[in-house]
């Protein structure tokens, strides 16, 4: 099987990472553009909803204001029939029939009279402080606007009849400059007192629920002094949309016509009810005076049955003079903050996916490299084990052949060949046992028989089992096995195997120095087993890898030191099964010191 060149694999991985990075950059740009579009759309929507909120509120107030512009002569004569007729009609058509709390007529030199809904007539009232204050305000120059009392009182002007057209004229302030106009003086007023609780507890909550139903936006209404009328949100520069309330401009009057706040048709006897209305003209003019660009007058023609016409006039800039203001703000603090949060969240998700994919690629590459290295180690292991098996098998075969051919006849020679076969067979058995131990430990099938035992006794048994090996190698052995160690839960056979493997490694990797020291001691909550040698030592780069299965350092392989790379891996498996740990201290050329820490039970 032909292997793929490493640079091809690296190129493929680099290309995938590059494509992912380009995709992330495109995603970032797309998210930025989408956020701008979403912000504009959301801004337009909130402005439209705020205007719809204000328009609907203003139409209710306008319906109340314009509905009661009646004949001042009849009111002055105490005739309340037209007011009663208008009031009944208004109650049938208004969404809030209890919006009007009281109406008082101020005409000529007459004392103020209250309209009694029950008797549908005017009744005399005692002029208290409130009534006197209203009388002074209505008689003041310049005359007061139509909205009084902080927004809960409407002053409806009453004008004498004309022959042709009913006009509604408004004078606006522009850049603090008043444009003077000839405004006719009203013949009286109908002062309409609005029900505060209806506005606060019904109208405003209903409109908020209708136009901002999802809770995405906070709605607040404040008066001129900044006092909260509805909601808890202050009106300020951070509002996403603002609209004036109590706007009585003729721009809004056409909505009254569409909504039929006044009747579009009349029945017999309704000689003073409005039949139809529409805005006829909107001009920028000031009579014979020089043209003033900012000044605007509005003329509204309203047709009635019969020949009587009345003119209603009020002045002031509603947007500057509106007693209340509606403010709308996104629940996130502002639309900008909401869009930024959404952008950050989407980018975080995209970046998280990017990192996840990148991490997945890196993990796959890393796993592939580890699998490749592990496979190579397995191949090296098979090769090493085959070589390890071949030498003793060759010796056994040769000795057996000599015995079979009668080469060795006397007792000494037979005994010599017998011991040779026995020793080589023991090597084979040890290697097979080591492989089986490793396989059992890795598969999880190895069962450890843990019981209270003496660690020093187990180490001493491992030294005795290794005595022949140490004697043949000519090792000087030092032992310091503590007799006062506390008993702990161990599998004695497994501990003996671990210590034997460390001793065998010391013999195998000796460097001319035939010295070995084995000791046990009691250390800070643990029992320590220490195996020290004066061998070839371990390079720093190899120290973390020597406990991995099949791993053999490059310098060991180059020196053709036989082994299968399982000894230290098996030691680690055994020690970790006892809830302990194994570590190594070594310097190249100066030997190694292996320490097994077993917890006290």
Protein described:
This protein has 601 residues and is an alpha+beta fold. The protein has three domains: 292 residues, no CATH class; 89 residues, Orthogonal Bundle (Helix Hairpins); 155 residues, 2-Layer Sandwich (Heat Shock Protein 90), CATH 3.30.565.10. Helix content is 47%, strand content 21%. It has 15 helices and 25 strands. The protein has a six-stranded antiparallel sheet with strand order 3-2-1-10-5-4. Strand 22 and strand 23 form a beta hairpin. Helix 1 packs antiparallel against helix 5 and helix 1 packs across helix 6. The longest helix has 71 residues. The protein is rod-shaped. About 15% of the residues have low confidence.
Query: Which term fits the overall shape?
Result: rod-shaped
**Oligomer class:** single chain
Strands, total number: 25
Provide the β-strand percentage band.
Answer: 15-25%
Query: From the alpha-carbon coordinates, what is the Rg to the nearest angstrom?
Result: 52 Å
If helices are DSSP runs of H or I spanning 4 or more residues, what is the number of helices? 15
Alpha-beta content class = alpha+beta
Q: Catalogue the unreliable spans.
A: 163-181, 251-320
Helix content: 40-55%
Whole-number tally of structural domains: 3
Mean pLDDT across all amino acids: 78
Largest sheet: 6 strands, antiparallel
Strand order of the largest sheet: 3-2-1-10-5-4
Q: How many angstroms separate the termini?
A: 54 Å
């Amino acid at each position: 099987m032909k292997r793929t060149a490493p640079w091809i694999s690296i190129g493929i991985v680099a290309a995938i990472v590059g494509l992912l990075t380009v995709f992330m950059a495109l995603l970032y740009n797309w998210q930025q553009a989408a956020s701008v579009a979403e912000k504009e759309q959301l801004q337009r929507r909130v402005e439209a909803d705020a205007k719809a909120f204000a328009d609907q509120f203003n139409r209710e107030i306008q319906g109340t204001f314009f509905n009661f512009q009646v004949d001042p002569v009849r009111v002055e004569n105490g005739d309340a029939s037209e007011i009663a007729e208008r009031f009944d009609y208004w109650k049938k058509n208004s969404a809030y029939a209890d919006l009007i709390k009281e109406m008082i007529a101020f005409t000529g030199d007459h004392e103020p009279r209250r309209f009694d809904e029950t008797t549908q007539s005017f009744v005399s009232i005692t002029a208290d402080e409130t009534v006197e204050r209203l009388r002074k305000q209505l008689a003041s120059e310049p005359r007061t606007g139509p909205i009084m009392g902080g927004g809960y009182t409407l002053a409806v002007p009453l004008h004498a009849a004309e022959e042709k057209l009913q006009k509604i004229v408004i004078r606006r302030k522009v850049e603090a400059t008043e444009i003077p106009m000839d405004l006719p003086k009203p013949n009286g007023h109908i002062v309409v007192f609005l029900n505060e609780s209806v506005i606060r507890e019904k109208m405003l909550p209903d409109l908020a629920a209708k136009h901002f139903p999802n809770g995405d936006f906070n709605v607040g209404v404040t008066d001129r002094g900044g006092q909260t009328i509805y909601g808890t949100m202050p009106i300020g520069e951070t509002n996403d949309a603002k609209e004036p309330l109590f706007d009585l401009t003729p721009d809004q009057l056409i909505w009254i016509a569409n909504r039929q706040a006044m009747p579009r048709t009349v029945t017999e006897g309704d000689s003073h009810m409005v039949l139809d209305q529409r805005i006829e003209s909107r001009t920028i003019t000031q009579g014979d005076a020089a043209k003033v660009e900012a000044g605007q007058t509005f003329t509204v023609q309203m047709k009635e049955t019969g020949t009587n016409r009345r003119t209603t006039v009020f002045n002031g800039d509603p947007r500057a003079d509106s007693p209340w203001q509606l403010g709308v703000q996104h629940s996130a603090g502002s639309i900008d903050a909401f869009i930024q949060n959404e952008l950050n969240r989407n980018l975080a998700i995209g970046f998280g996916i990017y990192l996840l994919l990148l991490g997945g690629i890196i993990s796959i590459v890393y796993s592939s490299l580890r699998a490749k290295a592990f496979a190579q180690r397995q191949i090296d292991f098979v090769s090493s084990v085959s070589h390890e098996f071949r030498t003793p098998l060759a010796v056994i075969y040769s000795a057996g052949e000599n015995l079979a051919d009668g080469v060795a006849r006397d007792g000494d020679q037979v005994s010599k060949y017998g011991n040779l076969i026995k020793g080589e067979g023991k090597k084979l058995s040890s290697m097979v046992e080591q492989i089986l131990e490793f396989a059992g430990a890795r598969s999880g099938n190895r069962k450890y028989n843990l019981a209270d035992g003496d660690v020093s006794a187990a180490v001493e048994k491992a030294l005795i089992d290794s005595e022949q090996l140490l004697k043949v190698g000519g090792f000087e052995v030092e032992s310091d096995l503590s007799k006062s160690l506390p008993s702990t839960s161990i599998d004695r056979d497994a501990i003996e195997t671990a210590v034997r493997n460390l001793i065998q490694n010391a013999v195998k990797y000796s460097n001319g120095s035939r010295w070995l020291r084995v000791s046990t001691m009691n250390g800070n909550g643990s029992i320590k087993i220490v195996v020290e040698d004066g061998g070839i030592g371990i390079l720093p780069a190899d120290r973390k890898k020597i406990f991995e299965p099949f791993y053999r350092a490059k310098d060991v392989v180059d020196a053709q030191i036989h082994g299968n790379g399982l000894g230290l891996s098996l030691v680690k498996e055994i020690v970790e099964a006892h809830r302990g740990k194994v570590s190594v201290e070594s310097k190249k050329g100066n030997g190694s010191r292996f320490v097994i820490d077993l917890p006290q039970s």
